[in-house]
Specification:
Elements: E1 4-11, E2 17-21, E3 25-27, E4 36-42, E5 51-61, E6 75-86, H1 98-107, E7 111-116, E8 126-128, E9 140-150, E10 163-170, E11 182-189, E12 192-202, E13 206-208, E14 213-221, E15 229-240, E16 247-257, E17 268-275, E18 289-291, E19 317-328, E20 335-345, E21 361-367
Parallel strand pairs: 1-21, 3-10, 13-20
Antiparallel strand pairs: 1-2, 2-4, 4-7, 5-6, 5-9, 8-9, 8-18, 9-10, 11-12, 12-14, 14-17, 15-16, 15-19, 19-20
Length: 377
């Protein structure tokens, strides 16, 4: 039996350096991030008196590219880790992965392995959806693995010998189920006896993308006011940690109903409202946070950001979700609002390790790089 495994490959414009990665999504387990294991292949005629360096770069764009003028730049590049790939170190401090062993055996003596460790407090890959008329790179956090020929790690790279391959730092839903979200809010009135009580219960704490959210609503009207309308919505909270006032919320799914209303004094009502947060209904809305996007792949609403409670210095973009229920009592009586946070993420994929047999075959996906005339250099 021949087993196939996928490899991502990208070549420098001059064709002298090639980078191979086994995957482009690296999972953040909150306490640690999966290491980036890859192999760099260098042309034999290019090895003399040259050094090859590798870096993991986190690019954070926090302003529109079209607004940049007079030297103002709304992008920061953070070099999270850096290492020399060639000449290789005398002693390797880590063990080769199975994929690296197979690639080194297949590519020959001019292939050199590398490994990068992303710090656990690095931000997740998130993109802010631009408006229909916006141009340029969208705001958000993106990652890429960069290899280049130079004299030292901080040397300026030349485009013809540089390889930049986009990757993503992702998180998956926790396997441990938390407590069922529940809240009770009450409102009394200055010149009226009794109070209005609203109880909201979600069917679970963690939802996967594409799942309906069931909000169980119970209203007990012990006041002399009348409930005229009910509105339930899912709100996405975005916190851009670079700014002090960089927080905003967007309603991504909502239902407004007057079924069972008006709810008269002394009455009670219980009903379930279903909400479905989807990108389909928010395609052209500026400011919606999306999961980081790789070329040729579709994306979805950004997953909730899971953080270590001990982590104080946050960077990047933090995304959260909440169900908000409003009772409308009329112009003079105001509103009663209840809010419940929840987690929206992708389920954790099957984590069974891949077995590479001696007759394994690689399914290589090559990314085009703009070609240049080598003789003209």
């Amino acid at each position: 039996m021949v087993a196939n495994f996928k490899v991502f490959k990208k070549i420098a414009p001059n064709g002298k350096v090639t980078v191979y990665l086994g995957k482009r999504d690296f999972v953040d387990h909150v306490s640690a991030v999966e290491p980036i294991d890859g192999v760099a292949l260098i042309d034999s005629s290019y090895l003399t008196d040259r050094k090859l360096f590798g870096q993991v770069v986190c690019s954070f764009r926090y302003g529109r590219e079209e607004d940049e003028c007079m030297g103002l730049n709304f992008q920061k590049d953070l070099y999270l880790c850096s290492a020399q790939i060639y000449p290789p170190p005398e002693k390797r401090e880590w063990n080769l992965s199975k994929l690296q062993e197979r690639l080194l055996k297949k590519l020959g003596p001019n292939a050199f392995p590398f490994r990068f460790e992303i710090p656990p407090n690095a931000p997740a890959s998130i993109m802010i959806q631009p408006g229909p008329e916006d141009q340029g790179e969208p705001c958000g956090v993106s990652y890429f693995v960069k290899t280049f020929i130079g004299d030292h790690e901080t040397d300026r790279s030349h485009r013809r010998s540089t390889v930049s391959l986009a990757i993503r730092k992702v998180q998956f839903a926790p396997s441990k189920v938390g407590r069922q979200p529940c809240t009770v809010v009450r409102k009394d009135f200055m010149l009226s006896p009794g109070e209005l009580e609203l109880e909201v219960v979600l069917d679970k704490q963690v939802y996967h993308h594409g799942e309906k959210i069931a909000a169980n609503i119970c209203i007990r009207n012990n006041s002399n006011k009348v409930v005229k309308k009910i509105k339930a919505m899912v709100q996405q909270g975005v916190d851009v940690m670079l700014f002090q006032n960089g927080q905003y919320r967007s309603s991504i799914a909502s239902i407004e109903t007057d079924e069972g209303c008006p709810l008269q004094p002394g009455s009670s009502m219980q009903k379930v409202i279903y909400l479905l947060p989807e990108l389909t209904n928010n395609k052209d809305r500026r400011g919606i946070a999306l999961d980081g996007q790789l070329k040729r792949n579709d994306t979805n609403l950004a997953s909730s950001t899971l953080m270590n409670p001990e982590q104080k210095d946050c960077f990047g973009i933090i995304v959260s979700y909440a169900v908000k229920v409003k009772l409308y009592l009329g112009a003079l009586s105001g509103e009663l609002t209840a809010e419940l946070p929840f987690i929206l993420m992708h389920p954790k994929p099957n984590s069974r390790p891949k077995l590479f047999h001696a007759d394994s075959q690689a399914d290589v996906e090559t990314f085009r790089q703009e070609s240049i005339d080598i003789d003209a250099m």
